[in-house]
């Protein structure tokens, strides 16, 4: 399942880079394909890393602190806190496509870096 999703994201990276090349009306050369593929895979890597951080629960404490602060500052929040007692801790969302997205982006970045070194050094 994850291999199929990773291959799907890798195909999306290649398709996005080709569409970006055609959209900018640039000549299709090996250098433009490598550059645009690197940009697309870098975008996928950043989105995958952001989902990984959110899924890991980095912002749970911050969300809990804001929830607790607003429960004590506003009148309705104060009444609700007095009735219910303690606030529940905010759970981190879980995504099934985080690792395939991150893996496909990393594969794209590594491959385009290797191709650029091989062809243009």
Integer-rounded radius of gyration: 22 Å
Question: What's the average pLDDT?
Answer: 85
Beta-strand content = under 5%
Task: Indicate the percent of residues in helices.
Answer: over 70%
Total beta strands: 0
Distance between the termini: 38 Å
Structural class: mainly alpha
Domain DUF3899: 34-116
Transmembrane segments: 6-24, 36-59, 97-120
Protein name: DUF3899 domain-containing protein
Keywords: Membrane, Transmembrane, Transmembrane helix
Protein described:
This protein is mostly helical. The protein has 2 domains: 2-57 and 98-120, no CATH class; 58-91, no CATH class. The protein contains 5 helices and no strands. α1 crosses α2 and α3 (60-73) crosses α4. The longest helix has 27 residues, at 30-56. The radius of gyration is 22 Å and the shape is elongated. The model has no long low-confidence stretch (mean pLDDT 85).
Could you name the key traits of this structure?
single chain, 121 residues, mainly alpha, 2 domains, 79% helix, transmembrane helix, transmembrane, DUF3899 domain-containing protein, membrane, DUF3899
